[in-house]
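Sequence in, structure out.
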Amino acid sequence: MALQLSGFLLIFLLRILAHICRSAVAALDSIFVFNGFQR
């Protein structure tokens, strides 16, 4: 039971980390595009 719960938490944390990474990459992309338009 505990093993199942820890596995579920691990997958949950990995999904949150992947979401944060995607958001950060999207934010950086928009910043770079904005800077490109500024030049």
